[in-house]
Amino acid sequence: MSDATVVVGYDGTPQSRAAVEWASREAERRGLPLELLHAGTAPDGAEHVRAERLLEVCAQELGLTHPEVPLTVLDVGDPPVAALIAAAGRGSLLVLGSRGLGALRGFVVGSVSQDVLARGACPAVLVRAASAEPPEGLPDGGGAPGVVAGVDLRYSADVLDFACKEAELRALPLHVVHTWGPPPGSEYVAFGTVGAPEDELAAAEAAGLDAAVDPWRRRYPAVPITTTLARGHAAIRLVDAATGARLLVVGRRHRGPRAAPRLGPVAHAAIHHTPSPVAIVPEGTGQE
Q1: Is 185 helix (H, G, I), strand (E, B) or coil?
Q2: How far is CA 171 from CA 180, 223, 274, in A?
Q3: pLDDT-based confidence at residue 41 (cuts at 50, 70, 90)
Q4: Can you tell me the distance from the alpha carbon of 111 to that of 58, in angstroms, rounded to the nearest whole number?
Q5: Is the pLDDT of residue 143 over 90?
Q6: Same fold, 1-133 and 139-288
Q7: Looking at domain 139-288, which CATH architecture does it have?
Q8: Segment (H or E) for 39
Q9: Which tens digit of pLDDT belongs to each residue from 225-276?
Q10: Dist CA 204 CA 212 (whole Å)
Q11: What is the mean pLDDT of residues 99-114?
C-alpha cells in the first residue's frame, strides 16, 4: 500500500515549476502532504549548493501560496530515474513536468519522464510547462469536457476509479471514451457480409462500456458521467476527445516480469499530443 503523499519532481525548470503548482493544488484538494523532490546532484560541490537554494526558495513560495499543505523537501544524489521510481513506490501520486511543443508539433517528453511513467508503481501526472489550471467547477459554458478517461474494457477499473476521484475533487464532469474496431482481416471480406456482424460487435462494445461505467456512476453519484463509443484508431480518437479537457486519464498495463516496461501506444500518444495534464494509471492501483 502506498503512503498517502503527493510527490513532485523539481529542478527549477519552467516545466517543473508548473508541476509543483499542479501538485500543490492536488495535495490541497486531497488533504495530503506534499514531497518536493530533487535528484541527481552529488552531496558536495556547486551543483548541490544550487539545488539546495532552488529547493529553499520553492519551499518558501509554497509556504505562502499553499500554507495548509504539509511540505517535505528531499534532495538525493541518486540518478533522477531511480529517485523518481523510488518515490512512486512510496507515494500515492507522482507529478512530473513536460516541456512545450517540439519541432514536429508534439510535446517534448524527456527520457527521464518516459522511463518513470512506464515503470512507476503509483499513478503519475505529466504537466505541461506554463499550464495554468482554471478555477474549480464546470468548464465555461459547460461545452468542453472536464476530465476525460480512455478505457480498455478489459482493464478499466483502475482508470475509472482514478478519473472519478479527480472529477469529484474538481466538481467536474467525467467523459469516458472507448474505441473499437472490426476483427483483423475483415477488410478483406465483402462489405455485404461484414455489415451485420459489425453491427453486432458495436452493440456488444456499447453494452460492455455501459457495464464497465455503471458501478462508478453508483459509487460517485455527484459526478456526471458521459460515454463515447468510437470506432477507429484508439490513440487518435482519444487525443481528439481530450481537446479542452482539464485532465486526461489513461491506463498502463502490467506486462509481466519478463516484459520490458513501456508505455502502450495510447499512453504514448497522450503524453506527446495532449496539451492538458495527462495521468498514467498503472494496472492494480484502483479499488476494483
Answers
A1: coil
A2: 30, 7, 22
A3: confident
A4: 24
A5: no
A6: yes
A7: 3-Layer(aba) Sandwich (3.40)
A8: strand 34-39
A9: 999 999 888 889 999 999 999 999 999 986 655 555 678 888 888 888 888 9
A10: 12
A11: 60
What distance lies between CA 55 and its chain's CA centroid?
Answer: 25
Q: What is the pLDDT of residue 48?
A: 82
Cα–Cα distance between 70 and 30 in angstroms, integer?
A: 12
Conformation bin of residue 12: beta by default, left when phi > 0, alpha when psi is -120 to 50: left
CB neighbour class for 82 (10 Å; exposed up to 12, middle 13-18, buried from 19): middle
Least confident of 19-33, 129-143, 171-185: 129-143
Q: What angle do CA 118, 124, 125 make, to 5 degrees?
A: 120
Q: Which CATH topology does 1-133 take?
A: Rossmann fold (3.40.50)
Q: Where are the alpha helices (DSSP H) in the chain?
A: 14-30, 46-65, 80-90, 111-119, 157-170, 191-219, 234-241, 265-273
Rounded to an integer, the average pLDDT of 217-232 is 94
The domains of the chain are located at: 1-133, 139-288
Summarised one tens digit per residue, pLDDT across range 62-97 is 999 999 999 999 999 898 999 999 999 999 999 999
Q: In what order do the strands lie in the sheet with 247-252?
A: 71-76, 34-39, 6-9, 93-98, 124-128, 278-282, 247-252, 147-150, 174-180, 225-231
In terms of Cα–Cα distance, which of 106, 107, 89 is closest to 18?
A: 107
At position 69, the amino acid (one-letter code) is V
Nearest to 250 by CA among 165, 177, 195: 177
Q: Cell 505562502 belongs to which residue?
A: 64
Spell 172-200 as b/e; 16+ CB within 10 A means b: bbbbbbbbbeeeeeeeeeeeeebeeebee
pLDDT at 114: 84
